[in-house]
Recover the amino acids of this structure.
């Protein structure tokens, strides 16, 4: 955590650390402002405030966004660095092994014994807004969270009715029936949020699940608040439950 914060502080100070420039000011500026032409709000491995469409963050905010919602958030106008780690379980054995290393790839929540684990639902907007609002003289931001999952009944019949409305004539039992048998509550929770419903619809059209939907559903994700949006996150978790955890086919045969 301290190393995350130090890295953010290095950029906040324009690449200067304790009186020595270890990164040039020109690179700090360019890497946090030069935006990719095909990825809204993305600079050189930093996401800018423009990547978030749900909250009016300070225009000079930028952030590093790592696996499982690990974050380094920098807001120069507020002289602020926020660092956030996630849960981590170290593999058994020594800290390092000669010639070997640990590679932890994205897996459905809870399936890895080691490595990092994402929260069930995370909203940068709510977290960062509370921090900003605690600073004297800052422009106050909304802090209302989106609806939390876990309130819909695990009802396969209701789930089938919902997916028939989402999929229309493309509905089939092999795919949609499997999803409703395996993930009925998650699917009904998702259907209560427009952004989540849009992700689920895209996943069913292109046949993807979980993080594999990031590329084929990129435009839908961006149109619904980006990867940090609660509805988008819940949508990815829902189709992850269907495709990756329970191996349901996402496209009808």
């Amino acid at each position: 955590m301290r190393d995350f914060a130090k890295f953010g502080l290095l950029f906040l100070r324009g690449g200067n650390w304790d009186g020595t420039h270890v990164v040039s000011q020109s690179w700090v500026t360019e890497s946090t402002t030069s935006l990719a032409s095909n990825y809204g709000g993305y600079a050189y491995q930093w996401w800018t405030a423009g990547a978030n469409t749900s909250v009016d963050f300070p225009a000079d905010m930028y952030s590093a966004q790592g696996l499982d919602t690990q974050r380094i958030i920098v807001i120069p106008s507020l002289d602020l660095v926020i660092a956030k780690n996630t849960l981590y379980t170290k593999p058994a054995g020594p800290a390092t092994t000669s010639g070997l290393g640990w590679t932890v790839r994205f897996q459905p929540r809870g399936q890895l014994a080691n490595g990092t684990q994402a929260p069930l639902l995370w909203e940068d907007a709510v977290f960062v807004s509370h921090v900003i609002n605690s600073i004297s003289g800052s422009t106050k931001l909304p802090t209302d969270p989106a609806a939390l999952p876990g309130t819909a009944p695990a009802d396969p019949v209701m789930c089938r009715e919902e997916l028939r409305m989402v999929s229309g004539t493309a509905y089939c039992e092999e795919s949609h029936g499997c999803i409703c048998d395996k993930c009925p509550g998650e699917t009904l929770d998702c259907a209560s949020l427009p952004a989540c419903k849009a992700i689920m619809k895209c996943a069913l059209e292109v046949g993807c699940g979980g993080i594999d939907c990031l590329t084929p559903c990129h435009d839908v994700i961006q149109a619904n608040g980006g990867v940090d949006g609660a509805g988008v996150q819940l949508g990815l978790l829902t189709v992850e439950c269907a495709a990756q955890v329970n191996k349901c086919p996402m496209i009808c045969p």
Q: What stands out?
A: Residues 6 and 205 are 43 Å apart (CA to CA).
